[in-house]
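Continuing the series of single-chain predictions for the mutant panel. This is the parent chain; the variants come on the following pages.
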Amino acid sequence: MKKVSLVQMKVHQKGTIVEVQGGKRFENRCISMGIYPGKELTKLSQFILRGPVAIRVGRSVLALGYGMAHRIIVETA
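Parent structure:
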C-alpha cells in the first residue's frame, strides 16, 4: 500500500482516504462533501498545470481545486 496525495494519483485509480491535512474548517468542509478518512474514492480526471481534480466519492462526482486535492492523502493499492 502506498500513501499519496490525491493530485499524485493516476486517472481511474481507486484508493481509500487516510488523512485530510488542514484545519478544522477545512476538515468540516471535506466532511460535508463526503470526503473523510476510511471513505473510498476514484480519481476521474485531472487538468494540466494545477487545474481541478475530478473524483467520484460514493454516488457523487466532485471537482476539487488543486490546493484542496493536494491536502487529501489517499492509500492506493
